[in-house]
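Bench notes, afternoon.
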Amino acid sequence: MNPAFAYREGRLHAEDVPVEDLAARFGTPCYVYSRGALEARYLAFVDAFAGHPVRVCYAVKANGNLAVLDVLAGHGAGFDIVSGGELARVLAAGGDPQRVVFSGACKLEDEIRAALAQDIACFNVESEPELYRLSELAVEAGREARIAIRVNPDVEAGGHRHISTGRREHKFGIALEDAGSLVVRAMTLPGLKLEGVACHIGSQMMALEPLAAALAQVADFARAVQADGVALRHVDAGGGLGIDHHGQVAPTPAQYAEVVLGALAGLGLDIVLEPGRAIAGPAGLLLTRVAYVKQGHGRKFALVDAAMNDLLRPALYEAWHDILPARAGAAPDAEPIDVVGPVCETGDFLGRDRELAVVPGDLLAVADGGAYGFVMSSNYNARPRACEVMVAGAEARVVRRRETTEELWRGEARFKEALP
């Protein structure tokens, strides 16, 4: 649990505010972010690479709330985007487009045009068709697109298979044996300027050996490209550093920096990083209230007002999130309890076999909700999405209001009223 969320006299606080007060004021379910924790997590990466030419580009997909992006932009962060919508969010939050890296295996034409118009720092190219499309659109726009070739080193990151991105069978990047020929094409196509090589092998890495192995291959590839006379400017080491969870301790940014700097030493290139979860994950939590306690045959359930539509990760990845009571001190029941939501799916759970003592009305906090929480939420079962709140010291502000029921059908029309 991040120090920004701690018990004081038996009450769980978000910075200086009891979470019970937040729930009373803003309702539940409710995402709560700590501004101080966001800043500290970002600056931990900056400090770990101090003295080296490194640009930390926060992965917007982890949490794209404007308040989150604004906090990080205020500290000079760059941004890693994977869509035109994420670029628009960065701009709306005051981010610098010339500190934006555009990743993703399927960049659409309108998204590329928007990024070219903003003169973003770099496109991480992930296929030969994308290279040709980018060249055509850059010429059409009268722009020069700065690019990096994203290579796929065929290394398993070690996390869940759905968040591993660096194996040969994955859709991301270009196999190393094919990347050399793409460099040749990139150097001859108009509208392109090859400036870097890139790699990202996956998310929630709890060990650094896979990263070291992948970056060793990336470094060899970069040296070969340089030897052919290409004046590279940077190497993108990706992101993917995990966070502490379920008793496992993740590597620190300092340990991460030691591996990255060691693997890329001697290249003479700037380094781009794309951390997301490692910055935002521990800086947030999801507040939810117990509606019922149900004793089944062999299972006990705490039915709460948050569900898989609010926090998808447990259902999608069987991900573990610590679940904490708002008030400490009660001895857990002898029988473990499953924390489940109202959605009509057996997979709708936030945690299984938890040692909690709860009664209806109790408030619970689901930890590490700052990344891949609200951004993956939906209106499934016609459920309005939760509000988001940011806390700074003793001050709490709504940074996204709760959706209303009427907003569920915003933009829709009955057939007889619809425009032809």
